[in-house]
Amino acid sequence: MSAPRSLRRDLAFGLVLGLGLMWLAAILGAALVLREELDEVFDSALRETAERLLPLAVTEIINTGPDTPARRVSPVRPHEEYLTYVVRGRDGAILLQSQDARAETFATAPRPGYRTTADHRIYTSSTVSGDYLIEVAEPLENRREATLETTGALVLPVLVLLPLSLLGVLWFTACRLRPVAALSAEVAGRDASDLAPLTTAGLQTELMPIRDAVNRLMAHLARTLEAERNFTANAAHELRTPVAASLAQTQRLIAEAPDGPLRDRARAIEAELQRLARLGAKLLDLSRAEGGAVLAPAPRDLAPILDLVVADFTRAGAPRLRLSLPAAAPSRLDPDAFAILARNLIENALTHGDPAQPVAVTLGADASLRVVNAGPVVPPDQLDRLTRRFERAGSRARGAGLGLAIAASIAEAAGARLVLSSPAPGRNDGFEAALIPA
């Protein structure tokens, strides 16, 4: 599965790339237009030069005599000539030429107007009589150099501004997406029991429907969970009185019934009523665990709480508990919630563990709780399902299948983890339920 993409990074790089491509396209278009304009300017200068030089050259030729051998005109001051020219007679013979004029430049047959060779742009003009014509040549390299220098002057600022634009876009998108980060942080900071409405301030119009939809969903979940908890608690509470009354009547029937099938049947009813009473108590514990009020305002020492829970089991006939307590185990876990969690983990170990082996109950100084019992190894596929409600993983022992679900609900509401291991760490068999604080 690919890593999630960053919206801010995608926006920043997308905008900068789009702007960069648009700038480059604009520069390319400007360079093409500029080249056309430069060609027009250079052609106009080339023609103007030819028109001005031709009368002067004809005068020079007439003054020196048309039969004078062709000569080169030396510049007043030595310099590199950007334009070269030749003046021809009616027969095509060169009568006058500039200092740097080369024969190969004017090798092609002259014709009026513009023409382009491999490396020169040439303009040809003639006198009205047609006795003389002039060819003025300009190296194409001059035009290419002018075009490149002008285009470079346009591109260079873009190359400098592009990184600055990227930084600016990153800063701008980070500022504008700050409400998104705040909304994400508010959602991520909630635990499973916190279904209060989101109150992120400064959200843009496009984000308001998302926040409102999440709030409506959480409100619906809160109502559903509250209705479920209320039903569970009310049902368990309402069952306690008739179950207790039925159990009392059954026990009285056992005492009055003679030995035989009637008393045996009454004892069976008593066992089922006791199981129903335990189930009601478990349902009350479950509603308390899912209620979310499992954290105390200030840390409390859990060692005395666990000592009392284990003492209750011992008095009830569970002598095989082996308790290990630290000097102190401060925690913000509510003492009542911790007592419910510990009672369910210990009861699970006593119910499903080997009855001939002790159950080790260990509380760490960091408020971690470990309950280890001997017994057969639980397969991994069944181990993952043990925290579900009414899941017994094929066990035939008495129990409602709610103990680990209650413990997992309390651990989750407290921000801790309930880790189940089988075989128990350091053993070849057994089962361990460990509460690991956040």
From TrEMBL:
Protein's recorded name: histidine kinase
Q: Kindly indicate whether the keyword Kinase belongs to this entry.
A: yes
Write out the transmembrane intervals: 12-34, 153-174
Listed A to Z, the keywords are: ATP-binding, Kinase, Membrane, Nucleotide-binding, Phosphoprotein, Transferase, Transmembrane, Transmembrane helix, Two-component regulatory system
Recorded hits in InterPro entries, A to Z, give: HATPase_C_sf, HATPase_dom, His_kinase_dom, HisK_dim/P_dom, HisK_dim/P_sf, TCS_sensor_his_kinase
Give residue ranges for domain Histidine kinase: 234-438
Q: Which Gene3D superfamilies match?
A: 1.10.287.130, Histidine kinase-like ATPase, C-terminal domain, Sensor protein qsec
Where is the protein situated, by its record's location annotation? Membrane
> What GO molecular function annotation could you give as one example from this UniProt entry?
ATP binding
Q: How does it sit in the membrane?
A: Multi-pass membrane protein
How far does the signal peptide extend, from start to end residue?
A: none
Its Enzyme Commission number(s) read 2.7.13.3
- Enumerate the catalysed reactions: ATP + protein L-histidine = ADP + protein N-phospho-L-histidine
Cellular component terms per the entry's GO annotation: plasma membrane
Question: What is the predominant subcellular site recorded for this chain?
Answer: membrane
